[in-house]
Design a protein that fits this description.
The chain has helices at 2-17, 63-69, 168-177, 253-269, 358-362, 372-388, 390-396, 410-416, 440-443, 452-458, 481-486, 506-522, 545-558, 578-581, and strands at residues 19-28, 38-41, 48-50, 56-62, 79-83, 86-91, 95-104, 109-118, 121-126, 133-141, 144-152, 157-165, 181-186, 190-191, 193-197, 202-211, 278-284, 287-294, 297-306, 315-321, 337-341, 398-408, 426-430, 493-498, 529-534. By secondary structure, it is an alpha+beta fold.
Length: 603
């Protein structure tokens, strides 16, 4: 009964005497204030505020609110005692900063002992030798002071029963300091943002709301055929829907690319599953560990972050494929952090099938269908998920809105898998050849180059769905790699191959790039596609000035936000055989050019 009365007293006392304040500003990605946004708490859902014209909000959290959320703290009993000359005190909550200060009877400070962060439980501090007399012991926990009378007789120290200051105020401050909650900010037309907070006493919070780049266009229903028996020797028309109709407006491309993606998954790579039920991450000593949970199954993989530029940031970063393997292709440009992605831990490219790793461990029902490349794409998205977490942004200083990918050869294929996630700002794809930049149909007409019938058995890159399209069946593929490249449109991409890289079939790569460029041009964004075909062999871009000019210009413009032109950066290394390969005329599409920052795929 007495404990219940004490708890009731604490709750009433706190509700009248203590209030914490959460305040800050909501801004958009350009730094402009966002008025009329609703800011609230997940655990204390009834507490919320609407931003004013300056984007500012204030949420007041009373002691009773905190105790309602953390009722176990009402039973906190801070006890203090002396054992010889050792001060013992017991507290049921953690504190971030504890200290003991001794004063003589005339108020002079004798000594100050800073104990730093303390865990809940029985804590102790040895006091110094003191002359006989009267003293005061001041215990300070997280800014709340409690003072006790103490007498020293030359042999022992004794605490008197007198206590000065507020013990119970400590309870509400402890709840505030150790709170774990989520600040939720939403407004129509913007992507809802969740920000983790560790205290209800915070000011000058800045919340960034991203605008939804969704189009108002409604896509018609479509169904991917269960079988593909129509043979087409030409490279399929990227402007023609599955139902046979052709695009007439630029915005219709956003629906068409959904179809192309579905066909690519159904016939080349295998299906990329949606975002896991939960993605968590931790960062320590340059190592970012990402844990994905699907149902009751959780698996983790890690990437390493290095070369983060000096300054507060946030800074752009390139996710580099091939960590732990050969160093191939150019180095990461200056001013950009490097994230090493050991993608084989997610999905191994090594035979035998199915690809081993975190990806297929989490999706065992898909493992007989999926190729390593789609597994790499899935892992890439999980890296972005992790970098979007507020606590990871703060720890790494990486800007999740300025991410690129980079890789050469097999890892160039991996860098190209950024076409499956619009959050990647700039894929830099180097000498990928078959599986990304080389058109299968043209390859079948060439000599000693990598063809569909060979690549499937070399590694686990391609999904099992691709096996039936080897050899003469390649013309039954409903798409080709020019459409996979065009999936990036209207967002930017850099693709660099070598004219002396015979196994990658230079003319095959050129024809795929050229046909893909027609899509960028039709959408009004030709400067977003950089294609370099340098006079060099496999992964030798760094020695070619023309190719490095393209790479650096796109990095400067899209990752470093410099005012650098990227127009005219397409190498005409061959002549496009329109009559043989182009399947239909390129239409003149109505409407404004599509926005470069359009995000439809973020899973």
């Amino acid at each position: 009964m007495i404990k219940q009365m004490i708890a009731a007293f604490i709750a009433v006392w706190c509700s009248f005497s203590y209030a914490a304040t959460l305040s800050g500003t909501v801004k958009d990605e350009n730094g402009a204030a966002v008025p009329a946004a609703i800011v609230g708490l997940a655990n204390l859902a009834e507490l919320k505020d609407t931003t004013d014209d300056a984007g500012m909000f204030t949420i007041t959290v009373s002691g009773s609110d905190i105790l309602k959320h953390t009722p176990d703290l009402t039973g906190n009993d801070l006890r203090i005692s002396l054992h010889g000359k050792t001060l013992l005190f017991t507290n049921s909550v953690d504190c971030k900063n504890a200290s003991v200060t001794l004063y003589s009877g005339n108020g002079r400070q004798v000594t100050a002992l800073n104990m730093g962060q303390q865990r809940a439980g029985v804590l102790q501090q040895i006091l110094p030798e003191l002359s006989p007399g009267y003293y005061m012991v001041q215990l300070e926990l997280d800014g709340v002071k409690t003072t006790y009378d103490m007498i020293a007789d030359g042999q022992r120290y004794y605490l008197k029963g007198t206590r000065h200051g507020s013990l119970h105020k400590k309870i509400t401050f402890a709840a505030s300091a150790n709170a774990v909650d989520t600040l939720k900010t939403s407004k129509s037309g913007y992507v809802t943002t969740n920000m983790a907070i560790d205290s209800y006493e915070k000011k000058d919070i800045t919340v960034i709301l991203k605008k939804e780049n969704k189009t108002n266009i409604e896509c018609a229903d479509y169904e991917v055929p269960s079988s593909f028996n129509v043979s087409n020797a030409k490279m399929p028309d990227p402007f023609r829907f599955i139902n046979g109709t052709r695009l007439s407006k630029k915005e219709e491309w956003l629906c068409r690319r959904n179809e192309i993606r579905a066909l690519a998954e159904a016939t080349i790579y295998g299906t990329k599953p949606p975002k896991p039920d939960k993605v968590a991450a931790s960062f320590s000593n340059g190592k970012l560990t990402i844990t994905s949970t699907v149902g009751s199954n959780s698996k983790s993989f890690s990437v390493t972050i290095s070369g983060v530029p000096s300054g507060e940031g946030p800074h752009p970063a390139i996710i580099n494929f091939g960590a732990g393997g050969m160093s191939m292709g150019p180095s990461i440009p200056s001013g950009v952090a490097k994230i090493e992605y050991p993608q084989d831990n997610v999905a191994s490219e090594r035979n035998p099938r199915p690809a081993k790793g975190v990806f297929n461990d989490l999706y065992p029902n898909l493992k007989n269908n999926q190729g390593a490349l789609i597994g790499w794409a899935w892992g890439l998205s999980r890296i972005v998920d992790a970098l979007e977490l507020p606590e990871i942004q703060q720890a790494t200083k990486i800007d999740p809105k300025r991410l690129g990918t980079m890789g050469c050869s097999r890892w160039g294929k991996g860098a190209g898998m950024a076409v499956f996630d619009d959050r990647i700002v700039l894929p830099i794809v180097l000498s990928p050849g078959s599986g990304f930049s080389s058109t299968w149909r043209v390859a079948e007409t060439q000599g000693n180059v990598q063809k569909a019938s060979q690549i499937y058995g070399e590694c686990t890159w391609m999904g099992a769905v691709f096996q039936k399209f080897g050899g003469s069946n390649v013309n039954k593929l409903p798409i080709d790699q020019h459409e996979v490249i065009a999936m990036r449109a209207p967002r930017p991409i850099v693709l660099l191959e070598g004219t002396n890289d015979s196994w990658n079939c230079p003319t095959c790569c050129y024809h795929a790039a050229k046909y893909a460029s027609f899509v960028f041009e039709a959408l009004g964004v030709p400067d977003n596609f950089g294609w370099g075909h340098g006079n060099h062999g496999h992964c030798a871009q760094s020695g070619n000035a023309g190719q490095m000019k393209i790479l650096n210009a796109f990095v400067d413009r899209f990752l470093l936000n410099k005012d650098v032109p990227t127009s005219g950066m397409f190498s005409e290394s061959f002549t496009f055989d329109k009559s043989k390969w182009q399947d239909g005329e390129v239409p003149e599409l109505e409407g404004e050019p599509l926005k470069t920052n359009t995000i439809l795929w973020d899973e």
